[in-house]
Design brief:
This protein is an alpha+beta fold. Helices cover 19% and strands 24% of the residues. The longest helix has 21 residues.
Length: 245
């Protein structure tokens, strides 16, 4: 699938495949957070657009454009106040093009946090739209100065097909309607409870193993592997700069 970015102002925006690593995950004891494979996979499932100029901002709690004060470390600002209501706006200096039916999920990088400000999320019809979009952050607390460093991600993009979601036929069923799933789930619950009990016993196998790795290894409680496959990482491609060719 082709994902094309057309720069609309000078050089292409700085875009990189989102890394799996997060500072707060690195800081957890023995990097425990990386044992959560769904968390790590989500971190890397898209591209990050990087902030070109370091700046700080503070919101006084008002609704007007003047309620946010920006202090930049350059001649220009990489963010502006455009909508009011404590919303900080970044211009994305590129038009994105996706295949028919594929939209662009636009928001903050998964599992990155900033105190006192929250990324807003949108879906953009990039298959046909000649219109640029902005990335917006909403202050959640007045009087708290926030800062975006140079090359800090301010936007995360991920192509998605909403048709897949619309095609879903949601329903509730009894777990026992799926006998294989029920057997595997109940076996896992029993193994988990036994493991957690044994984990408290110094020198036990569980204490040595430290955590159950079956999900991370893509193995069911009965030792079989899923026919649908298993991922432990996502590796995305860099944007190839064809503007200079």
């Amino acid at each position: 699938m082709k994902l094309v970015c057309y720069p609309v102002s000078g050089e292409p925006p700085e875009i990189r495949p989102a890394p799996m690593e997060r500072d707060w995950m690195d800081a957890t004891h023995e990097r425990h957070a990386y044992r959560c494979l769904p968390l790590s996979i989500a971190n890397a499932c898209g591209w990050e657009i990087l902030n070109p100029i370091a700046f700080s901002a503070v919101w006084d709690g008002g609704d007007g454009l003047e309620a946010i004060r920006l202090d930049s470390e350059g001649d220009t600002h990489s963010a502006i106040t455009h909508f009011g209501a404590g919303v900080l706006t970044f211009h994305v200096t590129g038009l994105f093009e996706t295949p028919p039916g594929v939209l662009m999920w636009v928001g903050g990088s998964p599992n990155r946090f900033k105190d006192a400000i929250q990324p807003l999320t949108g879906l953009v019809e990039t298959a046909w739209s000649p219109y640029s979009f902005t990335m917006n952050w909403k202050f959640t607390r007045a009087g708290q100065r926030i800062r975006f460093e140079k090359d800090e991600p301010f936007c995360f993009i991920m192509p998605i097909d909403p048709g897949l979601t619309e095609a879903c036929e949601p329903e509730f069923r009894s777990l026992d309607d799926n006998k294989d799933l029920a057997v595997n789930y109940r076996e896992w619950v029993q193994l988990r409870n036994s493991f957690n009990t044994e984990l408290k016993q110094p020198g036990s196998n569980a204490a040595t193993e430290k955590w159950q790795k079956t999900y991370h290894q893509g193995v069911k409680p009965d030792g079989t592997k899923p026919e649908t496959g298993h991922r432990t990482k996502i590796k995305l491609r860099q944007f190839d700069d064809k503007t200079k060719s």
